[in-house]
Amino acid sequence: MKDKDDQFLKRHFMDVAMRSYERGIPIYTDFLDLHEQGILHSLLPSLHASVEFYGGYGYAQRQVAVFLQPDAFFEIRKEDYPVTVLKIQPKNPRFTEDLNHRDYLGALMHLGIQRELIGDILVQEDHSAVVFCINRAVDILQDIHRIRHTEVVVDTIAITNFSYEPKFREELLLLASNRLDVLLAAAAHLSRKETNLLIDQGKVFLNARECYDHNRGVKEQDLLSIRGIGKLEILEFSGETKKGKQKVHIRWFE
Q1: Of the candidates 161, 178, 197, which is a domain's last residue?
Q2: pTM score, two decimals?
Q3: CATH number of the domain enclosing 244
Q4: pLDDT tens digits, residue range 177-192?
Q5: How far is CA 219 from CA 117, 144, 248, in A?
């Protein structure tokens, strides 16, 4: 079933690219997850269009793609994307619950909205959340009044006025090699068996693409996303220890 879905998605992307090329207009997708982005990346050399991605902020995981003519003479601005930023916050902060990402996503899905209409959900320290959504979903999402037992209000933030810097937690790893499986096991504190299973199940994404190659070498500035665990960036390889271990600085997204 997955292979059939992937083939359908490939045909869809190729059709969108051709329509953009023939009409000479930019065409936008809804939000794509990492697997869908990976499929689109694999098609780029054969498309009659160039493609850009945007998720509302740097390092966004779920992103909208726009198909453009290869020789397009104009630049797509962030306000051109069909993306709205919503701030959902407790109506009375004194009585808010300890809301998390799952609480917000569950409440939004309960509205009957399609997942591809919602991008990343950024939960703040005060238990409010910033939600990126496709413009046509705004009216539906503004009808949400409660997350679990907490009453909430919804406000719209202009995309041009929004900025966000992710928080990071840095670590130093000592690795026998720069192989993907070696780094993943050390960074996530997993056994080699657990690491291999994650890779084989397609749960590991290297620079937004599924990676099934256990021996793949990783390098500085690579982004690694592990479904169910988190996302990290490789900052620097800073030499070796006296015992020949590679010193690798990484940072986890919090």
Answers
A1: 161
A2: 0.88
A3: 3.10.290.10
A4: 999 999 999 999 999 9
A5: 33, 43, 10
